[in-house]
């Protein structure tokens, strides 16, 4: 991996998206990308091409979490990332919001092992990996305790939205990364969530939805 080429490409894409990135974050982003490339040769962490830092790959893995960071304050929030897989958006977002207490939820053993190694390699404090299915979190006592939930899903259905909503306390936020072809209609949203903010995502015309858990009357 050519470090200078990587930083040049990431810097260009970040500027284009209006996102800020300091030197320390560059170093961790590069370490994450390098580790993802190494592990992806052995297990399927991402279908995105990694060699030569394609713009769409950089946008999806690194820049979109930076866009999401504009809606997330750096404080000791309780944060669950569901179906963390190859680590994005959770790991890049954690890099630029280090105070948040991150729990990555990944049911597949080898992917969970990668996430633990990435957290260790990057020195991410207050970061945990739970090797469970999303549907099991409520039974494990996490229901109604979480300030922030992030999800990047190819298919977002009512079950996933209900599972995310059940984790959130009243006033908690769900940050949902979705493709342009899968924008949620009002009918597809659980009645417990309401749209607070939206932002355009650079890869493929996607949309970032920030939803808020309604207060219970």
Overall pLDDT level: 90
What is the total tally of β strands? Answer: 7
- The parts where pLDDT drops under 50 for at least 5 residues are none
> Structural class from helices and strands?
alpha/beta
Determine the number of helices (DSSP H or I, runs of at least 4 residues).
7
What is the topology, as strand order, of the major beta sheet? 3-2-1-4-5-7-6
Order of helices and strands: HHHEHEHEHEHEEE
List keywords for this structure.
217 residues, alpha/beta, seven-stranded mixed β-sheet, 22% strand
Strand and helix layout:
Blueprint: H1 3-16, H2 23-40, H3 55-69, E1 78-82, H4 90-96, E2 101-105, H5 109-122, E3 127-130, H6 138-142, E4 146-152, H7 158-167, E5 168-178, E6 193-200, E7 207-213
Parallel strand pairs: 1-2, 1-4, 2-3, 4-5
Antiparallel strand pairs: 5-7, 6-7
Helix pairs in contact: 1-3, 2-4, 2-5, 3-4
Brief account:
The protein is of the alpha/beta class.
Molecular structure report:
The longest helix has 18 residues, at 23-40. Strands 3-2-1-4-5-7-6 form a 7-stranded mixed sheet. Strand 4 (146-152), helix 7 (158-167) and strand 5 (168-178) form a beta-alpha-beta unit. The protein has helices at residues 3-16, 23-40, 55-69, 90-96, 109-122, 138-142, 158-167; strands at residues 78-82, 101-105, 127-130, 146-152, 168-178, 193-200, 207-213. Helix 2 (23-40) packs antiparallel against helix 4 and helix 2 packs antiparallel against helix 5. It contains 7 helices and 7 strands. With 217 residues, the chain is an alpha/beta fold.
